[in-house]
Amino acid sequence: MRPPVPLRSAAVHLIVFGALFVVPSGWMWRRELEARSWPTVDARSAGSQVVSYRGKNRSMHRAQYALRYAIAGKPYEVPRSATAGHSSEARAAEDAKRYEEGTVHRIHYNPAEPFDVREDAGARPLLLPALFTAVGGILLVIGCAILVRVRNRPPGPRCAACSAAVEPTFRYCAACGTVRPEARSEMPDDWGAEEEQPWQAHLARSEADEARRNRIGDRVGGAAFALVGIVLLGFAASIAYRRYQAVRLWPAVEGTVTRTQIAWEEGSEGQRAFRPHIELRYRVGDGEHRAIAAMERSANYAWARRTLERSPAGTRRSVRYDPAAPDVIELEGPIPIESLLVPAVLGGLGLVFAPLGLALVARGMMTRATLCARCRRRVLPGCRFCPHCGAPADVFPSSVDASER
Question: Which pLDDT score is estimated for 175?
């Protein structure tokens, strides 16, 4: 007797979801442990402040500050945000007070990218990778345990006449039609009678109603999944095409970088976000234009600095402009990975939801049941005898839609 398919499916899903937690946790562990081995330097605070933002259902507050330090005689300044936000402004003010102007703090810096710094915050930065590892590990252990248990499941009952596997609830062997001895005592006196009994009609209606509910659930649930997946794929394709159109199809001209800066913006949950701005001067036809090529924003200040360092003032860059609005420009070059994250995530979710939904709809449309002519109960495919009343397969009607009963 085969292990139950729903149990195997649940185990596979647990293993997949566990892997989705464990794989990112490995990257987080490597990043945090690597940062702890970076060189250290004393940084002096350039000032701090408390910013307020709207949380899920209340106002929240977070400290922001800037650190100044020198590496090999070269000065650096990095804006930072406190690790956590608080509903109490007083607690955020305490965080800001620790970073009052002139206070000294020990930091780790990346030798390959001096603007990439980490403060010595003890074990707190390790909580997130530890949580991901714990959740993923629990899911993996449970999933593997279920698979092992299903694999090592003892064999089920077999027919004494033909040794075929039978389900414990079957009263007849579906392969040879022999009555199972252990089921004889449980049979009512009218079992197998030609005329339909009340309990037979009740079982037939119950199984038909259950089949109908399952099919409706497959159709409705599958249609919802498919719709969500198609919408996500549409959004992903639209965003990706707009990016492709901007960097590949718009006309290109040569421009000169006139000014660069990093714009500070309010990110999510009161944290600072940084958007590199590169201003260029270029000519379209007989007119001269100046415009800013706004890049993707990020909470990583080091990434924003690297973006500007690739285009210092005075350098020549190829620019693509929108023919309908020449002041809308994009820098020509490889498409930034950051700009593809959103369509990649949406497309990935769409590729999961859409096929799953379509498969459920197809199963709901194609599922058909074979019903026994004597007891009018469902018979599994491949049975030569009805496992409920022992009727041979030649009295089964052709497959019918269970929802029509």
Answer: 72
* Beta-ladder partners of 179: 172
Domain at 241-343, CATH from 1.10.8, 2.60.40, 2.40.30, 2.40.50: 2.40.50
* Count of all residues that appear for the chain in the document: 405
Q: Where are the domains of the chain?
A: 5-128, 241-343
Residue 314 CA to residue 267 CA, distance in Å, equals 31
Token pair of 103, please?
């206070």
> CA-to-CA distance for 103 and 105, rounded, in angstroms?
7
Residue 60: Cβ within 10 Å count:
19
Q: Write down the residue that tokens 């495919």 correspond to.
A: 381
Question: Across the strands, what pairs with 108?
Answer: 40, 118
Per-residue model confidence as pLDDT tens digits over 26-56: 888 888 888 888 899 999 999 888 887 776 6
Given a cut of 70, whether residue 262 has pLDDT beyond it is: yes
Q: Rounded to a whole number, what is the distance in angstroms from the first to the last CA of the chain?
A: 30
Q: Are strands 316-322 and 252-266 parallel, antiparallel or unpaired?
A: antiparallel
Residue 246 has pLDDT above 70, yes or no: yes
Q: What is the C-alpha separation between 48 and 79, in angstroms, rounded?
A: 10
DSSP string, 118-168: EE--TTGGGHHHHHHHHHHHHHHHHHHHHHHHHHTPPP--B-TTT--B--T
Q: Dig out the tokens for 313 from the structure.
A: 């003032």
Secondary structure of residue 60 in the 3-state scheme: strand
| CA–CA separation, 90 and 339 (whole Å) | 38
At residue 69 the predicted structure's pLDDT band, cuts being 50, 70 and 90, is: very high
The candidate with the shortest Cα–Cα distance to 266, out of 67, 41, 99, 62, is 62
